[in-house]
Amino acid sequence: VHPNVSQGCQGGCATCSDYNGCLSCKPRLFFVLERIGMKQIGVCLSSCPSGYYGTRYPDINKCAKCKADCDTCFTRNFCTKCKSGFYLYSGKCLEKCPDGLEANNHTMECTSIVHCETSEWSPWSPCMKKGKTCGFKRGNEVRVREIVQHPSARGNPCPATSESRKCIVQRKRCQKEGKGKKNREDKRKKSNKDESKETRQESKGRAARRQNREQRENNNKTQPKKRKAPNKEQDLVPVDTAH
């Protein structure tokens, strides 16, 4: 072993030197060179830093640099995130997206163009005028539809979501809402009052009849039966006044 090579290293190094840092790594760790000033220091990491990708070999695992326009990559030819000013598409970093695709400035990727989609029209509403369905002959009716898919930046914009057209109906007079409501309330209260009154009268009548019947029965039980008085006219003896 070279005098400058040490076996008792720190930080995951298998072998190291005072000048160059790690020279080899422990199993499963990646060896990468970090530049400090004018020199490079070897370090051992569990995963490669941003801008590098890992390669495994039988003797050593190394971290290699991604392409200059790539921020993170899976291999040198397959980028997973681009640097500022570039858009990711199929593992490549492009300054301009291909035809049929658009640049997404939020994800910095080339994505498919999305056009607006709407639902079917609803049925036409009743013919109305100033929010009422009575008191007029000519009014308007409307129908609506909903947006089910909003468009992307370069997609087709959404059409109108409501339509209106003229309509003609047979004129009918509007009932005054307050008066009609009050009349209905009064009729309901009167009906309930009459029903309650009849119910109370029937209850009182039944109670009075029951009380009279009970009183007659009590009188019959407490009073003794009257004996029939003798007929005085039958007991008189006729007197012969001829003599």
TrEMBL record:
Basic and acidic residues composition bias: residue spans: 175-219
Gene Ontology MF term list: heparin binding; signaling receptor binding
GO cellular component, one term: extracellular region
Disulfide bond keyword on record: yes
Chain positions covered by the region annotation Disordered: 169-243
SMART domains assigned: FU, TSP1
Limits of the R-spondin Fu-CRD domain: 11-110
CDD domains in UniProt: FU (cd00064)
GO biological process: positive regulation of non-canonical Wnt signaling pathway; Wnt signaling pathway
Keyword field: Disulfide bond, Glycoprotein, Heparin-binding, Repeat, Secreted, Sensory transduction, Signal, Wnt signaling pathway
InterPro entries, per database record: Furin_repeat, Growth_fac_rcpt_cys_sf, R-spondin, Rspo_Fu-CRD_dom, TSP1_rpt, TSP1_rpt_sf, TSP1_spondin_dom
Entry-linked SUPFAM superfamilies: Growth factor receptor domain, TSP-1 type 1 repeat
Family assignment from sequence similarity: Belongs to the R-spondin family.
Assembly notes: Interacts with the extracellular domain of FZD8 and LRP6. It however does not form a ternary complex with FZD8 and LRP6. Interacts with WNT1. Binds heparin. Interacts with LGR4, LGR5 and LGR6.
Known function: Activator of the canonical Wnt signaling pathway by acting as a ligand for LGR4-6 receptors, which acts as a key regulator of angiogenesis. Upon binding to LGR4-6 (LGR4, LGR5 or LGR6), LGR4-6 associate with phosphorylated LRP6 and frizzled receptors that are activated by extracellular Wnt receptors, triggering the canonical Wnt signaling pathway to increase expression of target genes. Also regulates the canonical Wnt/beta-catenin-dependent pathway and non-canonical Wnt signaling by acting as an inhibitor of ZNRF3, an important regulator of the Wnt signaling pathway.
Protein name per the record: R-spondin-3
Natural source organism: Myiagra hebetior
Gene from which the chain derives: Rspo3
